[in-house]
Amino acid sequence: MNLADYKSEFLNYLNKEIQIKEPKKLYEPIYYILQIGGKRLRPILTLISCHFFKGNYKNALPAALAIEVFHNFTLVHDDIMDEAPIRRGQKTVHKKWNLNTGILSGDAMMLMTNKLMEHYNNDMFKELMVLFNKTALEVCEGQQYDVDFETSKDVSIEAYKKMITYKTAVLLACSLKMGAIIAGASKNDAQHIYEYGLHLGIAFQLQDDYLDTFGNPETFGKLIGGDILENKKTYLYLQLLKKISEEDKVSLLKWYRTKEKSDRKIKEVTLLYSKYKISELVKKEITKYTTIAYESLEKTTIKESGQSFFKKIGNELLNRKV
């Protein structure tokens, strides 16, 4: 099977399990956010991991859907916190409905993830839930770090990497480890595939930072320059602070002290990124973490053909436009 086959299997399962029911104003937003696209990378990785550790990938479908529902729950609430108008090229849930609907439907999605885990029994259920609960809490911690950074005057690059590890990478790693657990893989294999996902997730988020500023608005699916408008201290911003002249720093900090949301603000800050070649630094860091991910993958007992499959996913990540 190729990625499209796994995605098709997953979407068939999603469409069977996720239906609009009463009360409609609770379930319509859930159906909406789960239907408007997305790469479905996390659930697909759960299925692939289960398969390549010699399990029946169909047994991993409930866990894969739980991961996808949880991921989209975090997006619904993140969009509320960021006051974001667009997600995947469509209106965000709180803009299409209202703030209260976004909060309540998001809460319901979190509970749905737990119900999906009820497909598993006894020791496997416990192992999956311990991993999932740890991951979910780390995602919340990562989100709080992200919020804290907006008002902090002193954010280090290491602190930023910890934030994206928690906010993004741990869920990717969890997706892979769940597949391994369901397949009955050894603890060593489960941990190595987790490390593969963790470092791939860091690369994934760094690529997202890059695309937020330098992406194509027609393919990215979100507002280009959104991080700049929200004064987010991304990897690009923190690297710029290390290299910028004092004169240019005055201009940069002036923009980051204002809540102004204008095209001019995006343009001026982007010009500074280009002047100091920050995009090249980000690409180098993406390559670094992808390489570490591959080294972890090579420590697993997955056959070479399976490792090639996972590396292909990593290569596509490095070249993605959305």
Question: Please, could you describe this protein's structure?
Answer:
With 322 residues, the protein is mostly helical. The chain has a single domain (3-318), classed as Farnesyl Diphosphate Synthase (Orthogonal Bundle). The chain has 16 helices and two strands. The longest helix is centred in the middle third of the chain and has 30 residues, at 122-151. The chain is globular.
Summarize the structure.
With 322 residues, the protein is mainly α. It has 16 helices and two strands.
Entry keywords:
322 residues, mainly alpha, Farnesyl Diphosphate Synthase, two-stranded antiparallel sheet, globular
| Fraction of residues in H or I helices | over 70%
Strand order of the largest sheet: 1-2
Work out the strand percent.
Answer: under 5%
CATH architecture: Orthogonal Bundle
Using only C-alpha atoms, the radius of gyration works out to 20 Å
Class by helix and strand content? mainly alpha
Query: What is the level 1 CATH name?
Result: Mainly Alpha
Oligomeric assembly: single chain
List the domain count as a whole number. Answer: 1
Q: Give the N-terminus to C-terminus distance in angstroms.
A: 23 Å
Major sheet characteristics: 2 strands, antiparallel
SSE sequence, one letter per element: HHHHEEHHHHHHHHHHHH
**What is the 3D shape?**
globular
Reported by name, the CATH topology is Farnesyl Diphosphate Synthase
Average pLDDT score: 94
CATH homologous superfamily caption: Farnesyl Diphosphate Synthase
Number of helices: 16
The beta-strand count equals 2
Low-confidence runs: none
